[in-house]
Fold this protein.
Amino acid sequence: MAVNDVHLISKHGTSPPTTVSLGVRAIAANLSFIDRPLKKAGLPELRRFFESDGESWLKASEVLSAFEKARAFFHDDPLDEILFEVVAEQLGPANEILRGLPKDSLVRLEVIQSKPRKPAKPKPVRSGSSLQAAVATAAKAKSPKRAATAAKQGEAKPLQSQLNAQQREYVQMLLEDYRCDADLWAFPDIERKARLTEIDQRSGLNSLECLRRNLRQQQPQLNDEECEAMVEMNLLSNLDLIERGLARRIAFNMLSDLRAALSLDARMSWLEHRRYRRKGGSYPDAWTILRALAAKDVAIARCFLDLVDGPLRGGNRAVDLLYNAMLAILTEDDALQRDLVGKIAKQKAPEAYKAMLNVVGGILSEEPSVVAAGLGQVMKTFRRAFFHDEEKIICFVAHGLAELALEKNGKLLDAFDVAQGMPWDAAFFEWLRGESSSPVYPELAKRSPLLDQWLNRFKIPDSWGSGDEDDE
């Protein structure tokens, strides 16, 4: 993303909002790269602060706290990365601006994007690329006996031939640079060994010990067992799980890995809500819920909605309506469903968001032809929405909306071609028909009994609270 500037919009009391330049262009343009080491260290990621919908507000103190932790982390000579030096340099003045705001101020960050230029012609994928090698190896490994059980194990035909050169290069990068060639459940042990050898020059601690220290500083109430479970979860999710699941779906045909990645990413996000005692919904949750639905994990989608007192208001209008439609359908709130039909039909929105609203409008009115047309629009426009690279190959939004339609009425996809090609993953959708809408991952119990309780059974410690408390 080409970024021209980042504006800090702040308001306090009844005073009108004020706008200043925050001077963090390099950060906004490199959030995925910057957030990886923060996540690895168990520190707050910055991405969510920059994904403003133009209407929702954040506590200035919350943004400042995350920025201060990030600056302290990146202000470290041994990191030896020019971008990290720039991050620390830009966050210094930005933090001073935030500290100068009146107490209890509310803020949002507005990313000002540069005018798009004509994209360069993608580089051809190298003939000996690891993506091509992975696909070839997977094909050769398919003995008759293995092929007969492939569908049961969650494997499918490779998608490589349906990707363009730029997409293949992206997946190749995930395989080569981020060890997405490793089994989804074997990766945590590989990551653990690597972190034991990484020494923090300031503290003398290895990377794993630094992670434990940071987790305890942020959440002093964690006992030893809970802290170790959080460490295990961090190792599993290091490098976004969705990236790992996507790469393994494309390179190794592992449908089960893509599902686990989408599902567990949503479950970990829900757990963060509970760990920090957050009550209520927010517009970014709409995308997490849709990804969970794309994996046919209806159980965790409903867990998110259990935290909600009622329909969302005050955020991005189109996304609020999308969220509220999911709330109405998954909680079987007939009154809310009737109330939303007219509002959704009248709502103006950018083309990508309007396409999503057209789908949920068709679901609410139970019109298969409208649902089918809307899903087609979604797949033509979804890349224009504010999604990340791993969400622009397979249209997870369309898959999530399709699963939502089936929750409402099993015949609502009768007019939709479920066998079509990319960005629709027909094999993934077909395989999910035989899977439970409340998946259980036995591997979690092997790693930690608490992870089994938290992420398979949705049980959290009483000491974490009910979520009714205000954010601290």
